[in-house]
Amino acid sequence: MFTKFLKSLKGSQRENSNKLLDKISKMDLVEMRIYINEKLDDFEVDDFGLHEVVKKLINMNEQSSKYFLQENDLDSKKKKAFELLLLILQHKKTSIAVIESTQEFLDVYDKLIKQYDKDNKDIYESKIKKLMSLAVDRINKQTNIINVMEVSK
């Protein structure tokens, strides 16, 4: 009986993950921001969702063979994407997978970020790197707390 319950629970989680993936694939930057700010009632923000949002930003579109951000995009779109990434890094449910994907974001959009920062006298590259470091520190603290709790049992 307990096994059936666990299987149905895993099936329901898988179904929710599939629904979330479908939803994220159709989101624009504004909708992604609404999701990250936990104002989307249908879906709870978790590390899986955060990771999928970052992956959407860094993966190449199979149909158009283009990345989410292009050099010829408006500065406002680039800024929204950078701000979204900062918001994700500040989220309490950020995971190592999200941080690794953020590093990939920096690799993919290195030229674009530097050009944006130069043209608009901004510092998104350093902001992103600083928040990545803070997110790693936060995860390390959480891990240490969990380890202390397990040892004290």
Could you explain the architecture of this structure?
The chain is 75% helix and 0% strand. It is mainly α. It has one domain (2-152). The longest helix has 29 residues, at 124-152. The chain is globular, with a radius of gyration of 18 Å. The two termini are 29 Å apart.
Residue stretches low in confidence (pLDDT < 50, at least 5 long) are 1-9
Q: Figure out the total of helices.
A: 7
The count of β-strands is 0
What is the arithmetic mean of pLDDT? 88
Strand coverage percent: under 5%
How many structural domains are formed by the residues? 1
Give the helix proportion (percent range): over 70%
Taking all Cα atoms into account, the compactness measure Rg is 18 Å
Broad structural category = mainly alpha
Inertia-based shape: globular
Q: CA-to-CA gap between the ends?
A: 29 Å
Characterize the largest beta sheet: strand count, sense, and whether it forms a barrel.
Answer: none
Q: What letter string, H or E per element, gives the SSE order?
A: HHHHHHH
